[in-house]
């Protein structure tokens, strides 16, 4: 039975980003002087799973990635990921859907004027 990942072809750019993230995680681990087994233990994941993450295998769960970044002390770097304030394209699309002029001025109701 083929796996789900074999049915799904990722865009090349996404694959490259995953590989780059895995390499960065590996560099962070090595700079701390930690073995794969040590970081896997700190993150509570299997060594093979950590290795798959470092190799940029796209089937690695996003939760594993976040947990490993947490164990490395790099989880705050995720604050900028998909930040709505940094989404210039999304902001432009949203602005293009806003009305270009205000509605007609409405006369105030004087129902309660004595």
List the helices and strands and how they pair.
Layout: H1 4-7, H2 12-31, H3 36-43, H4 47-54, H5 62-72, H6 88-96
Helix pairs in contact: 3-4, 3-5
Structure description:
The protein is an all-alpha fold. The chain is 53% helix and 0% strand. The protein has helices spanning 4-7, 12-31, 36-43, 47-54, 62-72, 88-96. Helix 3 packs across helix 4 (47-54) and helix 3 (36-43) crosses helix 5 (62-72). It is elongated and about 80 Å long. The model has no long low-confidence stretch (mean pLDDT 89).
Main attributes?
114 residues; mainly alpha; 0% strand
Largest sheet: none
Helicity, as a percent range: 40-55%
Instruction: Please tell me how large the radius of gyration is.
Output: 24 Å
Coarse morphology: elongated
Uncertain residue segments: none
Strand percentage: under 5%
The first-to-last residue Cα distance is 80 Å
> How are helices and strands ordered from N to C?
HHHHHH
Question: How many separate helices?
Answer: 6
Structural class: mainly alpha
Mean pLDDT: 89
Number of strands: 0
Quick recap:
By secondary structure, the protein is mainly α. It has six helices and no strands.
């Amino acid at each position: 039975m083929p796996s789900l990942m074999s049915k799904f072809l990722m865009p090349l750019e996404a694959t490259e980003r995953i590989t780059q993230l895995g390499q960065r995680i590996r560099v962070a681990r090595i700079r701390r002087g930690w073995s794969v087994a040590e970081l896997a233990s700190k993150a509570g994941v299997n060594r093979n799973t950590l290795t798959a993450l470092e190799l940029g295998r796209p089937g690695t769960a996003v939760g594993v990635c976040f947990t490993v970044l947490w164990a490395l002390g790099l989880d705050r770097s995720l604050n900028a990921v998909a930040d709505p304030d940094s989404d210039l394209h999304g902001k432009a699309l949203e602005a293009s859907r806003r009305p270009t002029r205000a509605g007609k001025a409405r006369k105030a109701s004087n129902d309660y004027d004595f």
